Amino acid sequence: MATFIYFALCLLIATLGKNRKFGFWGYFFCSLFLSPAVGALLFIASDPRPKDENKSRDASAHSEQEAKRHIDA
Questions:
Q1: What pLDDT digit, counting tens, does each position of 55-69 carry?
Q2: Is the C-alpha dihedral spanning 38, 42, 43, 49 positive or negative?
Q3: 2, 36, 40, 54: which could form a disulfide with 9 (CB 3.0–4.6 Å)?
Q4: pTM, full prediction
Q5: Cα 43 to Cα 9: distance, rounded to the nearest angstrom
Q6: DSSP the chain
């Protein structure tokens, strides 16, 4: 029974951390190998995963280049 609770706490922390810097698997293995308490502390101390702004910038730059090619042609 204690093993089930330990594993459930590890899964809970991993699920909560899926949009954080370490992701689901990072928090899961940290909680599993160290302890759910350490995993929870890492979750609390970590920041949310940054939004990927580089992709949107690259896409808009690519669109501008395409527009220039069509105008020049």
A1: 555 555 566 666 666
A2: negative
A3: 36
A4: 0.65
A5: 13
A6: -HHHHHHHHHHHHHHHGGGBSSHHHHHHHHHHHT-HHHHHHHHHHSPBPPP-HHHHHHHHHHHHHHHHHHHH-
pLDDT tens-digit profile of 30-56? 999 999 999 999 999 988 888 775 555
Q: Rounded to an integer, what distance in angstroms lies between the CA atom of residue 62 and that of residue 70?
A: 13
Number of separate domains in the chain: 1
Alpha-carbon distance of 29 to 13, in angstroms, equals: 10
Interaxial angle between packed helices 2-16 and 23-33, expressed in degrees from 0 to 180 and rounded to the nearest 10: 150
* CA–CA distances in Å: residue 2 to residues 18, 23, 60: 24, 25, 53
